[in-house]
Write a structure and sequence with these properties.
The chain has helices at about 30-35, 40-50, 75-85, 90-95, 105-115, 125-140, 145-165, 175-185, 200-215, 225-235, 245-250, 305, 315-320, 320-370, 375-400, 405-415, and strands spanning about 15-25, 55-60, 65-70, 100, 195, 220, 240, 255-260, 280, 300-305. The protein is α/β, with parallel strands linked by helices. One of its GO terms (biological process) is protoporphyrinogen IX biosynthetic process from glutamate.
Amino acid sequence: MKTNLKTYSGEALEGNFYTIGLNYKKADAEIRGHFSIDDTAKEKILEQGKADGIPSLTVISTCNRTELYGFAQHPYQLIKLLCQYTNGTVEEFEKVAYIYKNRDAVSHLFTVGTGLDSQILGDFEIISQLRNAFRESKKRDMINPFMERLANAVIQASKRIKNETGISSGATSVSFAAVQYIMAHVPQISEKNILLFGTGKIGRNTCENLIKHTKNDHITLVNRTKEKAEKVAGKFNLVVKDYADIQSEIAQADVLIVATGAQQPTISQELLYLNRPLLILDLSIPKNVSDDVLENELVTLVHMDQLSALTDHTLEQRAAQLPLAKKIIAEIEKEFNKWADHRKYAPTINALKNKLIEIKAGELDYQSKKIDGFNQDQAEIISDRLIQKITTHFANHLKGEEGSAESIELIRRVFQLETA
């Protein structure tokens, strides 16, 4: 677990900014499934976080990662929330998790939001998921100015990288990787029967890539809600079958792609009555295909984690764009950190300036009564310049401090400052 002693110490009342989570790098699909969060659980986490006094919180859960971003006095507050509303335990989390604090948490969010931490480099679907997550938090008044500014900065970085680099060139994503795998392992794919079960976002993208790259017109769609499948089928002129027919449809398929959003396996051995080889690709988190399908010797099962190992020319081209993408991130991240630093010491500097103005007013009033011919205007000009120089010196000192919490506190005590 990673933390950093650098702090945005101006957040004394709110705590520190943390990212806690797990992703594909250390957590396999099964473990990620334990910590998968559906829309209902996300809502409950935000509501419970608010009730617990957490001032700012955002939740993201994708097939590759589950993360909470928020302010807390201790990261365990966020870990507890995650485990409370998922099937994962604290012990399980600790084995595969990461914790980032303050600037490290900021850097991590930039890396995630720009697709540099995606399982397939440059997969930009994550930024829309992050945008939606921050939007949901804002609806519930669970975003403070720090996190709102950070979200906007990450979105800006994502847009610039997409527009100014080639890191998003080519159609490489989980869905495209699945199609690449099929094309590499199934001969005469254009003549094979393909069954797509699940027409959510990954299912729709997979369907589009299948049609574009395989030239196959034997694709059948099945979804628990038939109307959703019909909407997708209408766009591509495909066949839709009832969910009740899935067993017979599997028996006729050469390739089965499972992209459902169920929390439990939807495909198991008992559905398989096969007389020909069947390639099954499970693109779901949690896993939606039970491992018992491998008891059937005609089945080959591939999960999305295996698909991420695909390395082709497109990915090599993307990797070459990494230095430019990182340069853009560094530039925008630096601007954000400068704003965050200013935000932490600004109340103290403003309070110091007001204190000096108060002292000035008292002293000028005293001297005007004591000195004959006292020049009030000149005294105002000189004292205002002194106040400006003094506050500028203090501000520059705080800007240059690696950890300025002690300096801020000392200034407050010496000048007896009241800050909001």
